[in-house]
Design goal:
- There is one protein chain.
- By secondary structure, this protein is an alpha/beta fold.
- The chain is 31% helix and 12% strand.
- Strands 1, 2, 4, 5 and 6 form a 5-stranded mixed β-sheet that branches. Strands 3-7 form a two-stranded antiparallel ribbon.
Length: 208
């Protein structure tokens, strides 16, 4: 990928073992690991020399979070060569080291007499994972529809129930006007009957 002068990709370096993929923190540690574990001796970089600037990259040394840089690059422990840490990184790094630096086989028992000098894995094994930066953390808060409705819904005022008029109980002992007239008529009839009966009794006595 080619970058313009206005833009330089931010990269940080890893130092993986090109045989087993283990990532070490420094170039010297990687050189020691390759000799002690795999039996190959490599020369280190010249002391006091700094990595030359690159027109396409900005070097981020010792980043604190993952958002401090854009990509990992796998670096050779013996020179300034580096390549992106993708699925082909260990193969590219092994080809470079074997062709350019020609490692010395000082312990053939550790590499099966020199037959193991290429990657045995297809990925780097990071022992340290950087935490994500603030820019990488998304804080999306989702609210349910019920909560939204509760916030937007207005509380309706409580309406008082109208008092129902109390129904008056009908007094069963109270007589209606028609019943009263009927009683008077009955009493009048009884009175007439009684008077007629008395009149008949008096007339009978006079005849005797």
């Amino acid at each position: 990928m080619v970058y313009s002068k206005e833009y330089k990709q931010k990269i940080t370096f890893e130092y993986p073992c090109y045989i087993c993929g283990s990532v070490l923190s420094k170039a010297r540690q990687t050189i020691n690991h390759i000799e002690n574990t795999h039996g190959y001796r490599l020369n280190g970089r010249l002391v006091g020399r700094r990595r030359p600037e690159d027109p396409n990259y900005v070097y981020i040394n010792e980043p604190k979070t993952r958002s401090d840089f854009e990509a990992y690059h796998c670096s050779c422990p013996s020179c300034w060569y580096h390549c992106p840490c993708d699925e082909d990184a260990l193969t590219s790094l092994a080809n470079h080291v074997n062709k350019t630096h020609k490692p010395q086989n000082v312990d053939p028992a550790k590499n099966e007499n020199g037959t193991i000098k290429h990657p045995q894995v297809s990925y780097v094994v990071r022992s340290k994972i950087l935490p994500p930066g603030d820019d990488d953390q998304e804080t999306d808060e989702l609210e349910s529809e019920d909560e939204d409705e509760e916030k937007t819904k207005k509380k309706s005022p409580k309406t008082k129930a109208k008092a129902q008029p109390k129904s008056k109980k009908k007094d069963t002992n109270q007589l209606g006007i028609n019943d009263l007239y009927q009683r008077i008529a009955d009493l009048t009839e009884m009175f007439k009957t009684l008077m007629n009966s008395n009149s008949n009794m008096n007339s009978n006595k006079q005849q005797d």
